[in-house]
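TL;DR need C-alpha coordinates for one chain.
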Amino acid sequence: MGYYKHDDVISHIQSFAHAAAAVNFGRTMKVAMLGNNMRDVAVTDGDRVESEICYGWNVNYYGIGDVADIAEKVTDAEIDAKIVEYNEKFTMATDNAAAVREQAKYEVALEKFIEKENIGAFTDTFQDLHGLRQLPGIAAQNLMAKGIGFGPEGDYKTAALGAVLFKMAEGRDGATGFMEDYTYDLTSGNELELAAHMLEVSPVFAAGKPEIQVHPLGIGGKEDPARLVFDGIDGEGIAVSMIDMGDRFRLVCADITLVKQPEPMPKLPVARLMWKLKPDFNTGAAAWIYAGGAHHAVVSTALTKEDIRLFAKMTDTELVIIDEKTELNVFEQQLAMLDTMAKLKR
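>> reply
TL;DR here they are.
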Protein backbone atom coordinates (compact mmCIF):
# COMPACT_ATOMS: atom_id res chain seq x y z
CA MET A 1 0.00 0.00 0.00
CA GLY A 2 1.47 3.36 -1.01
CA TYR A 3 2.58 5.57 -3.88
CA TYR A 4 3.92 3.56 -6.80
CA LYS A 5 7.06 5.70 -7.22
CA HIS A 6 8.20 5.39 -3.61
CA ASP A 7 11.22 3.15 -3.10
CA ASP A 8 9.60 1.07 -0.35
CA VAL A 9 6.55 0.34 -2.52
CA ILE A 10 8.72 -0.58 -5.50
CA SER A 11 10.80 -2.85 -3.24
CA HIS A 12 7.68 -4.67 -2.03
CA ILE A 13 6.45 -5.14 -5.58
CA GLN A 14 9.85 -6.48 -6.62
CA SER A 15 9.85 -8.95 -3.74
CA PHE A 16 6.38 -10.12 -4.72
CA ALA A 17 7.45 -10.52 -8.35
CA HIS A 18 10.57 -12.50 -7.38
CA ALA A 19 8.53 -14.83 -5.16
CA ALA A 20 5.89 -15.30 -7.85
CA ALA A 21 8.56 -16.08 -10.46
CA ALA A 22 10.09 -18.66 -8.12
CA VAL A 23 6.72 -20.32 -7.46
CA ASN A 24 6.01 -20.37 -11.19
CA PHE A 25 9.45 -21.86 -11.88
CA GLY A 26 8.70 -24.66 -9.42
CA ARG A 27 5.40 -25.48 -11.12
CA THR A 28 7.21 -27.10 -14.04
CA MET A 29 10.42 -28.22 -12.32
CA LYS A 30 11.64 -31.79 -12.61
CA VAL A 31 13.75 -33.24 -9.80
CA ALA A 32 15.93 -36.30 -10.44
CA MET A 33 16.74 -38.64 -7.57
CA LEU A 34 19.87 -40.49 -8.63
CA GLY A 35 19.28 -43.40 -6.32
CA ASN A 36 16.89 -43.26 -3.38
CA ASN A 37 17.26 -41.44 -0.08
CA MET A 38 19.98 -42.53 2.33
CA ARG A 39 19.11 -45.61 4.34
CA ASP A 40 17.92 -45.03 7.92
CA VAL A 41 17.56 -41.25 7.41
CA ALA A 42 13.84 -40.65 6.96
CA VAL A 43 14.08 -36.84 7.21
CA THR A 44 15.58 -36.69 3.72
CA ASP A 45 12.48 -38.32 2.24
CA GLY A 46 8.93 -37.06 1.89
CA ASP A 47 5.63 -37.45 0.07
CA ARG A 48 6.71 -36.83 -3.52
CA VAL A 49 3.18 -36.94 -4.90
CA GLU A 50 2.09 -34.32 -2.37
CA SER A 51 5.12 -32.23 -3.36
CA GLU A 52 3.86 -32.15 -6.92
CA ILE A 53 0.32 -31.29 -5.79
CA CYS A 54 1.53 -28.44 -3.57
CA TYR A 55 4.44 -27.03 -5.58
CA GLY A 56 4.46 -28.67 -9.00
CA TRP A 57 7.78 -30.41 -8.27
CA ASN A 58 7.87 -33.55 -10.40
CA VAL A 59 10.19 -35.85 -8.41
CA ASN A 60 11.30 -39.12 -9.98
CA TYR A 61 13.88 -41.83 -9.44
CA TYR A 62 16.67 -42.32 -11.98
CA GLY A 63 19.36 -44.96 -11.76
CA ILE A 64 22.86 -43.59 -11.16
CA GLY A 65 23.84 -45.91 -14.01
CA ASP A 66 22.09 -43.52 -16.41
CA VAL A 67 24.73 -40.90 -15.56
CA ALA A 68 27.54 -43.45 -15.42
CA ASP A 69 26.72 -44.56 -18.98
CA ILE A 70 26.89 -40.95 -20.20
CA ALA A 71 30.15 -40.41 -18.31
CA GLU A 72 31.79 -43.33 -20.10
CA LYS A 73 31.17 -41.55 -23.42
CA VAL A 74 32.57 -38.17 -22.34
CA THR A 75 35.56 -37.27 -24.50
CA ASP A 76 39.01 -36.07 -23.40
CA ALA A 77 38.31 -32.80 -25.21
CA GLU A 78 35.17 -32.24 -23.14
CA ILE A 79 37.10 -32.97 -19.95
CA ASP A 80 39.92 -30.64 -21.04
CA ALA A 81 37.42 -27.82 -21.57
CA LYS A 82 36.01 -28.34 -18.08
CA ILE A 83 39.53 -28.35 -16.59
CA VAL A 84 40.16 -24.97 -18.27
CA GLU A 85 37.01 -23.67 -16.55
CA TYR A 86 38.20 -25.04 -13.20
CA ASN A 87 41.61 -23.40 -13.57
CA GLU A 88 39.97 -20.05 -14.32
CA LYS A 89 37.60 -20.15 -11.36
CA PHE A 90 39.53 -22.11 -8.73
CA THR A 91 43.06 -22.66 -7.43
CA MET A 92 44.47 -26.10 -8.22
CA ALA A 93 45.88 -27.28 -4.87
CA THR A 94 46.48 -30.94 -5.70
CA ASP A 95 48.77 -32.93 -7.94
CA ASN A 96 46.15 -35.69 -8.29
CA ALA A 97 45.08 -34.66 -11.77
CA ALA A 98 43.29 -37.96 -12.39
CA ALA A 99 40.85 -37.36 -9.53
CA VAL A 100 40.08 -33.85 -10.76
CA ARG A 101 39.55 -35.09 -14.32
CA GLU A 102 37.17 -37.74 -13.00
CA GLN A 103 35.05 -34.99 -11.40
CA ALA A 104 35.16 -32.98 -14.63
CA LYS A 105 33.88 -36.03 -16.47
CA TYR A 106 31.00 -36.36 -14.01
CA GLU A 107 30.06 -32.71 -14.40
CA VAL A 108 29.96 -32.99 -18.18
CA ALA A 109 27.84 -36.14 -17.86
CA LEU A 110 25.48 -34.51 -15.37
CA GLU A 111 25.10 -31.46 -17.62
CA LYS A 112 24.12 -33.71 -20.51
CA PHE A 113 21.72 -35.68 -18.33
CA ILE A 114 20.16 -32.48 -16.95
CA GLU A 115 19.70 -31.03 -20.42
CA LYS A 116 18.27 -34.24 -21.86
CA GLU A 117 15.75 -34.76 -19.04
CA ASN A 118 15.06 -31.04 -18.41
CA ILE A 119 16.11 -31.33 -14.77
CA GLY A 120 16.08 -28.36 -12.38
CA ALA A 121 17.40 -30.14 -9.28
CA PHE A 122 18.91 -33.50 -8.42
CA THR A 123 20.04 -35.69 -5.56
CA ASP A 124 22.55 -38.48 -5.12
CA THR A 125 23.75 -40.66 -2.27
CA PHE A 126 27.09 -42.23 -1.40
CA GLN A 127 25.22 -45.51 -0.84
CA ASP A 128 24.33 -45.76 -4.53
CA LEU A 129 27.31 -45.00 -6.77
CA HIS A 130 27.34 -48.08 -9.01
CA GLY A 131 29.42 -47.30 -12.07
CA LEU A 132 31.15 -44.23 -10.55
CA ARG A 133 34.63 -44.20 -9.06
CA GLN A 134 34.00 -41.17 -6.83
CA LEU A 135 31.11 -39.41 -5.17
CA PRO A 136 30.48 -36.26 -7.25
CA GLY A 137 32.19 -33.36 -5.46
CA ILE A 138 33.31 -30.48 -7.66
CA ALA A 139 30.72 -31.66 -10.19
CA ALA A 140 27.83 -31.05 -7.78
CA GLN A 141 29.37 -27.89 -6.31
CA ASN A 142 29.89 -26.21 -9.68
CA LEU A 143 26.38 -27.11 -10.87
CA MET A 144 24.86 -25.59 -7.73
CA ALA A 145 26.67 -22.33 -8.45
CA LYS A 146 24.92 -22.30 -11.83
CA GLY A 147 21.45 -22.61 -10.27
CA ILE A 148 20.87 -26.37 -10.32
CA GLY A 149 19.38 -27.46 -7.01
CA PHE A 150 21.14 -30.24 -5.12
CA GLY A 151 20.36 -32.41 -2.13
CA PRO A 152 22.73 -35.04 -0.71
CA GLU A 153 21.62 -38.42 0.58
CA GLY A 154 18.50 -38.30 -1.60
CA ASP A 155 17.12 -35.13 0.02
CA TYR A 156 14.80 -34.06 -2.79
CA LYS A 157 13.02 -31.41 -0.67
CA THR A 158 16.24 -29.49 -0.07
CA ALA A 159 17.30 -29.91 -3.71
CA ALA A 160 14.01 -28.53 -5.01
CA LEU A 161 13.81 -25.75 -2.44
CA GLY A 162 17.40 -24.77 -3.26
CA ALA A 163 16.59 -24.39 -6.96
CA VAL A 164 13.43 -22.39 -6.23
CA LEU A 165 15.12 -20.03 -3.76
CA PHE A 166 18.09 -19.59 -6.12
CA LYS A 167 15.54 -18.51 -8.73
CA MET A 168 13.92 -16.13 -6.24
CA ALA A 169 17.31 -14.54 -5.49
CA GLU A 170 18.20 -13.85 -9.13
CA GLY A 171 19.43 -10.31 -9.62
CA ARG A 172 20.10 -9.74 -5.92
CA ASP A 173 23.39 -9.43 -4.10
CA GLY A 174 24.30 -12.40 -1.95
CA ALA A 175 24.57 -16.18 -2.11
CA THR A 176 22.01 -18.98 -1.98
CA GLY A 177 22.60 -22.71 -1.73
CA PHE A 178 22.50 -25.99 0.19
CA MET A 179 24.10 -26.29 3.63
CA GLU A 180 24.13 -28.76 6.50
CA ASP A 181 24.27 -28.30 10.27
CA TYR A 182 27.60 -29.96 10.98
CA THR A 183 28.81 -29.28 14.52
CA TYR A 184 29.12 -26.50 17.10
CA ASP A 185 31.68 -24.33 18.83
CA LEU A 186 30.28 -24.28 22.36
CA THR A 187 32.57 -21.58 23.81
CA SER A 188 30.42 -20.07 26.55
CA GLY A 189 28.96 -16.74 25.49
CA ASN A 190 30.24 -17.03 21.92
CA GLU A 191 28.60 -20.19 20.64
CA LEU A 192 28.79 -20.71 16.88
CA GLU A 193 27.37 -23.17 14.43
CA LEU A 194 29.73 -24.77 11.92
CA ALA A 195 27.93 -25.64 8.71
CA ALA A 196 29.65 -27.89 6.19
CA HIS A 197 29.27 -31.11 4.27
CA MET A 198 31.51 -33.97 3.24
CA LEU A 199 31.78 -32.52 -0.29
CA GLU A 200 28.89 -30.59 -1.70
CA VAL A 201 28.89 -26.90 -0.70
CA SER A 202 28.32 -24.31 -3.42
CA PRO A 203 31.28 -22.00 -4.19
CA VAL A 204 28.88 -19.03 -4.19
CA PHE A 205 29.56 -19.01 -0.43
CA ALA A 206 33.35 -18.69 -0.79
CA ALA A 207 34.99 -15.71 0.89
CA GLY A 208 38.02 -16.12 -1.38
CA LYS A 209 39.07 -18.21 -4.35
CA PRO A 210 38.18 -21.87 -3.65
CA GLU A 211 40.92 -24.49 -3.77
CA ILE A 212 40.59 -27.84 -5.52
CA GLN A 213 41.83 -30.51 -3.13
CA VAL A 214 41.73 -34.31 -3.02
CA HIS A 215 41.25 -36.14 0.29
CA PRO A 216 39.90 -39.49 1.46
CA LEU A 217 36.17 -39.46 2.09
CA GLY A 218 36.03 -42.28 4.64
CA ILE A 219 32.49 -43.22 3.63
CA GLY A 220 30.98 -44.88 0.58
CA GLY A 221 33.93 -47.12 -0.25
CA LYS A 222 35.00 -45.23 -3.39
CA GLU A 223 38.14 -43.41 -4.53
CA ASP A 224 39.32 -40.17 -2.91
CA PRO A 225 37.15 -37.44 -4.45
CA ALA A 226 38.23 -33.99 -5.59
CA ARG A 227 36.32 -31.16 -3.98
CA LEU A 228 36.32 -27.38 -3.53
CA VAL A 229 37.60 -26.24 -0.13
CA PHE A 230 37.06 -22.70 1.18
CA ASP A 231 36.14 -20.51 4.14
CA GLY A 232 32.71 -18.94 3.93
CA ILE A 233 31.37 -15.42 3.62
CA ASP A 234 29.96 -13.35 6.47
CA GLY A 235 26.86 -11.18 6.75
CA GLU A 236 23.17 -11.43 7.62
CA GLY A 237 21.24 -14.38 6.21
CA ILE A 238 18.57 -17.01 6.67
CA ALA A 239 18.57 -20.80 6.96
CA VAL A 240 15.43 -22.50 5.62
CA SER A 241 14.49 -26.14 6.17
CA MET A 242 11.52 -27.94 4.61
CA ILE A 243 10.11 -30.91 6.48
CA ASP A 244 7.25 -33.31 5.83
CA MET A 245 4.93 -33.35 8.85
CA GLY A 246 2.95 -36.31 7.53
CA ASP A 247 -0.19 -34.30 6.79
CA ARG A 248 1.46 -31.09 5.54
CA PHE A 249 4.79 -29.47 4.73
CA ARG A 250 6.43 -27.00 7.09
CA LEU A 251 9.07 -24.38 6.39
CA VAL A 252 11.37 -23.46 9.26
CA CYS A 253 13.13 -20.16 8.61
CA ALA A 254 15.83 -18.90 10.99
CA ASP A 255 17.56 -15.54 10.92
CA ILE A 256 21.33 -16.05 11.24
CA THR A 257 24.48 -13.94 11.23
CA LEU A 258 27.31 -15.48 9.22
CA VAL A 259 30.75 -14.78 10.70
CA LYS A 260 34.34 -15.19 9.64
CA GLN A 261 35.99 -18.44 10.62
CA PRO A 262 37.78 -17.67 13.92
CA GLU A 263 40.57 -20.23 13.54
CA PRO A 264 42.14 -22.31 10.73
CA MET A 265 40.67 -25.80 10.32
CA PRO A 266 43.39 -27.93 8.70
CA LYS A 267 41.69 -31.17 9.73
CA LEU A 268 38.39 -30.27 8.06
CA PRO A 269 39.23 -30.37 4.33
CA VAL A 270 35.80 -29.30 3.09
CA ALA A 271 33.99 -26.04 2.43
CA ARG A 272 32.34 -24.48 5.49
CA LEU A 273 30.33 -21.59 6.86
CA MET A 274 29.98 -20.39 10.44
CA TRP A 275 27.09 -18.45 11.94
CA LYS A 276 25.45 -17.22 15.11
CA LEU A 277 21.91 -18.25 15.97
CA LYS A 278 19.21 -15.76 16.96
CA PRO A 279 18.07 -14.59 19.41
CA ASP A 280 20.84 -16.57 21.15
CA PHE A 281 22.37 -20.01 20.75
CA ASN A 282 20.25 -21.87 23.32
CA THR A 283 16.93 -20.40 22.18
CA GLY A 284 17.70 -20.65 18.47
CA ALA A 285 18.89 -24.25 18.65
CA ALA A 286 15.99 -25.36 20.86
CA ALA A 287 13.40 -23.65 18.61
CA TRP A 288 14.89 -25.30 15.51
CA ILE A 289 14.64 -28.72 17.19
CA TYR A 290 11.12 -28.13 18.54
CA ALA A 291 9.97 -27.10 15.06
CA GLY A 292 11.44 -30.24 13.51
CA GLY A 293 14.14 -28.44 11.54
CA ALA A 294 16.28 -30.94 9.63
CA HIS A 295 20.07 -31.12 9.36
CA HIS A 296 19.85 -29.97 5.71
CA ALA A 297 18.80 -26.45 4.83
CA VAL A 298 19.01 -23.78 2.16
CA VAL A 299 21.06 -20.81 3.33
CA SER A 300 20.80 -17.39 1.68
CA THR A 301 22.33 -13.98 2.22
CA ALA A 302 20.30 -12.65 -0.72
CA LEU A 303 16.85 -13.45 0.70
CA THR A 304 15.12 -12.57 3.97
CA LYS A 305 12.41 -14.12 6.10
CA GLU A 306 9.93 -11.80 4.37
CA ASP A 307 10.73 -13.47 1.05
CA ILE A 308 10.09 -16.87 2.61
CA ARG A 309 6.87 -15.54 4.13
CA LEU A 310 5.70 -14.55 0.63
CA PHE A 311 6.60 -17.96 -0.78
CA ALA A 312 4.77 -19.72 2.07
CA LYS A 313 1.69 -17.56 1.55
CA MET A 314 1.62 -18.17 -2.21
CA THR A 315 1.93 -21.94 -1.77
CA ASP A 316 -0.19 -22.27 1.37
CA THR A 317 2.75 -23.75 3.26
CA GLU A 318 3.01 -23.70 7.05
CA LEU A 319 5.82 -21.41 8.18
CA VAL A 320 7.57 -20.88 11.50
CA ILE A 321 10.18 -18.16 11.95
CA ILE A 322 13.03 -18.03 14.44
CA ASP A 323 14.46 -14.53 14.92
CA GLU A 324 15.40 -11.91 17.49
CA LYS A 325 11.82 -11.90 18.83
CA THR A 326 11.62 -15.65 19.47
CA GLU A 327 10.70 -16.67 23.02
CA LEU A 328 10.52 -20.40 23.62
CA ASN A 329 7.27 -20.58 25.61
CA VAL A 330 5.42 -18.54 23.00
CA PHE A 331 7.12 -20.51 20.23
CA GLU A 332 5.96 -23.84 21.67
CA GLN A 333 2.42 -22.47 21.94
CA GLN A 334 2.61 -21.43 18.26
CA LEU A 335 3.64 -24.95 17.27
CA ALA A 336 0.78 -26.45 19.29
CA MET A 337 -1.67 -24.06 17.64
CA LEU A 338 -0.38 -25.01 14.17
CA ASP A 339 -0.86 -28.70 14.97
CA THR A 340 -4.42 -28.02 16.11
CA MET A 341 -5.21 -25.98 13.01
CA ALA A 342 -3.83 -28.76 10.81
CA LYS A 343 -6.12 -31.31 12.49
CA LEU A 344 -9.14 -29.06 11.94
CA LYS A 345 -8.34 -28.82 8.23
CA ARG A 346 -8.38 -32.59 7.72
